[in-house]
UniProtKB/TrEMBL annotation:
Belongs to the sirtuin family. Class I subfamily. Pfam families: SIR2 (PF02146). Residues 1-340 form the Deacetylase sirtuin-type domain. It comes from Grifola frondosa (Maitake). This is NAD-dependent protein deacetylase SIR4.
Length: 372
C-alpha cells in the first residue's frame, strides 16, 4: 500500500543553523514546508510509524509558543491562519515603491538563503526518497533545501521529476514575458547596477550583522531609503527591444495564481497515493489545504504531524500528532528503512547529517506568500 504525503511547513521549523555555525562534519538548516508522497510503505510499517511517533519517548509538551521558538518564521500565524503580507503580487508587478523595496531586501537576503544547508528533517526525508519509500514530494518551501539534501545522490533531472515545488523557488528569477534567469546571475546583475548596495551587502557578510531573513528570502530592514536601487531590465527582453519587463523571484506571492501544470500535478500525486502524511504544516494556504480536502474526498487515511493549531484540526479522517519533526524524523526514517539503513552507506550518511540550533525568540511571520 502507498502512503501519501508529508507536508513540512516552515512554521513548524524546529531546526535552523547558519552557514557560519557548521563544522566540517555537519550540515545544518533553514526552512521547511512540504508535502511528501510515499508508495512503498505497507500497512504494518505505517502503523509502526504511527506507534513510534506517539510513543512516550517522542512525546513533548510543545504548544504554539514553543513551536515558534523552535522554528523559523512562516506564512501562517500561531492559530493556523495566514499572516498579513506587506506586499501583494500586483504591487510587485506594477513596480510600486513597495516592489522596489522588496527587491532590495530580497537582494540583501538571498546570500543566507543561498548558503543555508539542510537540517535533520530534510535529510530524513531525503533518505526516504532515495530508497523510494517517498518517491514523490510536494514542498511549499522555496529555499531548495530538499534538493540540497538529495544533491549527493540524485541529479537535477531526477529531483525535478520527484520534488514538486508548489510555491516555486528563490533560486530562479523570471520576467513578465517568462524568460528565466539563474538567481546567482541576477544577483550579479544587481550588484553591477548597484555598487553602493553591493558594498553594503559585503559589509553585512564581513561583520556578521546580517538582518533577519524572512522565509521568502528578503530581509527585515528599517529606516532605509530604496529610491536609488536599480533593477536591470531582462536581458532577453532587451534583445527583443522590450523594456520595463518586471523581473521577480520565481515564487508565488499573495494574489498570484499557482501555474496550472503545478496545480494539476499536485492533484495527480494525491490521486495515485494510498495515504497522506502531513508533516509540520498549519495548512493555512488554500493551495495546501485543498490537497488535504481532495485526499479526504477520496477517503485516503491522513496522518498530520504538527505542533499547534492547524486548519485540519477536528476534520474527520485526520489523525494528528503534536510532536516537533526534528525530534523524531531521523529515528522514524531508520525504523521505516529497517535493514536498508544498516546496509546502505548513502542512507547512513544522510541520517548522520544535519545539526540543530534554535533560532531567536522574536521572529514574526512577514513572508509574502500566496494563499493559493
Amino acid at each position: 500500500r502507498s502512503v501519501t504525503g508529508l507536508y513540512v511547513d516552515r512554521h513548524n521549523r524546529d531546526e535552523r543553523v547558519s552557514h557560519a555555525d557548521l563544522s566540517p562534519n555537519h550540515t545544518g538548516c533553514a526552512a521547511s514546508h512540504d508535502f511528501v508522497f510515499a508508495n512503498n510503505l505497507d500497512t504494518s510499517r505505517y502503523r509502526a510509524h504511527c506507534r513510534l511517533l506517539s510513543s512516550r519517548k517522542c512525546r513533548g509538551n510543545n504548544g504554539g509558543g514553543s513551536q515558534r521558538r523552535l522554528g523559523h518564521p512562516g506564512v501562517s500565524g500561531s492559530q493556523g491562519k495566514i499572516s498579513q503580507s506587506k506586499l501583494q503580487y500586483h504591487e510587485l508587478m506594477d513596480s510600486t515603491g513597495k516592489g522596489f523595496a522588496f527587491r532590495l531586501r530580497s537582494y540583501l537576503g538571498y546570500p543566507p538563503v543561498r548558503d543555508a544547508l539542510p537540517n535533520t528533517t530534510h535529510f530524513a526525508l531525503a533518505a526516504l526518497q532515495y530508497k523510494s519509500i517517498v518517491p514523490q514530494l510536494i514542498t511549499q518551501n522555496v529555499d531548495g533545501l530538499h534538493h540540497k539534501a538529495l544533491s549527493g545522490a540524485w541529479d537535477e533531472a531526477l529531483m525535478h521529476e520527484r520534488i514538486l515545488q508548489l510555491h516555486g523557488t528563490l533560486h530562479k528569477v523570471h520576467c513578465s514575458f517568462g524568460h528565466v534567469t539563474d538567481r546567482d546571475t541576477f544577483q550579479q546583475m544587481l550588484s553591477e547596477a548597484n555598487p553602493q548596495w553591493k558594498a553594503f551587502s559585503d559589509d553585512l557578510e564581513a561583520t556578521g550583522s546580517q538582518p533577519r531573513t524572512n522565509p521568502d528570502g528578503d530581509v527585515v530592514l528599517e529606516g532605509v531609503s530604496y529610491n536609488d536601487f536599480v533593477v536591470p531590465n531582462c536581458p532577453s527582453c532587451l534583445l527583443a527591444n522590450r523594456r520595463n519587463s518586471v523581473q521577480k523571484p520565481e515564487v508565488i506571492f499573495f494574489g498570484e495564481s499557482i501555474p496550472k501544470e503545478v496545480k494539476d500535478k499536485s492533484f495527480q500525486i494525491i490521486d495515485k497515493c494510498d495515504r497522506l502524511f502531513l508533516l509540520g504544516t498549519t495548512l493555512a494556504t488554500f493551495s495546501a489545504f485543498r490537497l488535504l480536502k481532495h485526499a479526504l474526498e477520496l477517503h485516503k487515511p491522513v496522518l498530520l504531524l504538527n505542533v499547534g493549531p492547524t486548519r485540519a484540526d477536528g476534520l474527520p479522517g485526520v489523525e494528528k500528532l503534536e510532536i516537533p519533526s526534528g525530534l523524531i524524523m531521523r529515528e522514524v526514517a531508520k525504523e521505516v528503512l529497517g535493514s536498508d539503513y544498516s546496509h546502505d552507506s548513502v542512507v547512513q550518511e544522510m541520517l548522520r547529517s544535519g545539526i540543530i540550533k534554535p533560532p531567536p525568540d522574536d521572529e514574526d511571520d512577514l513572508a509574502p506568500r500566496a494563499a493559493g
